[in-house]
Specification:
The chain is of the alpha+beta class. It has 3 helices and 9 strands; from the N terminus they run H-E-H-E-E-E-E-H-E-E-E-E.
Length: 145
């Protein structure tokens, strides 16, 4: 019985320890091309402080921290997942046109502080504390406070 337990424990332990492989670098070439283009197009005025590469068993995620404190997160394909700006407003030019139009019509004086995208929706956090939720096409769904 002890031998069976050890035979099961050892591969499980090896599997768990080999799955987690975080790398911290400043090498922009480590980012997928799409993520590099996103940073260059939307945040070219800032330098990259560091890039954290989080490798899991079936996926890789990238977190880019800029010298001004802004944080960008990307999936393994380089698609943006989250953008959070701490000292400035999020540049909204990368958002779908429908989202930009809705924000301009309804919250023209409020800044965008954070944007998060999942497979089902997009959350836009405004400077006034409201969260505006859109579907993947950019259509308004609801607001949360």
């Amino acid at each position: 019985m002890k031998r069976l337990f050890l035979y099961l424990l050892l591969p499980g332990t090896l599997l768990l320890t080999s799955c987690k492989d975080d790398v911290v670098t400043r090498d922009v070439a480590q980012l997928p091309e799409l993520a590099r283009q996103f940073v260059q197009s939307n945040f070219s005025q800032y330098h990259i402080s560091y890039i954290k590469i989080d490798r899991e068993l079936f996926s890789t995620e990238y977190k880019v921290v800029l010298t001004n404190g802004d944080e960008l997160e990307f999936d393994s394909d380089g698609e943006w997942k989250e953008v959070e700006c701490k000292r400035t407003a999020v540049p909204v030019r990368f958002l779908p046109d429908a989202v930009k139009l809705y924000l301009n019509q309804n919250f023209a004086t409020d800044s965008v502080e954070k944007v998060k995208r999942t497979s089902r929706e997009m959350e836009v956090e405004l400077g006034n504390g409201l969260e505006v939720i859109f579907d993947t096409e950019g259509n308004f769904k609801r607001m949360d406070d």
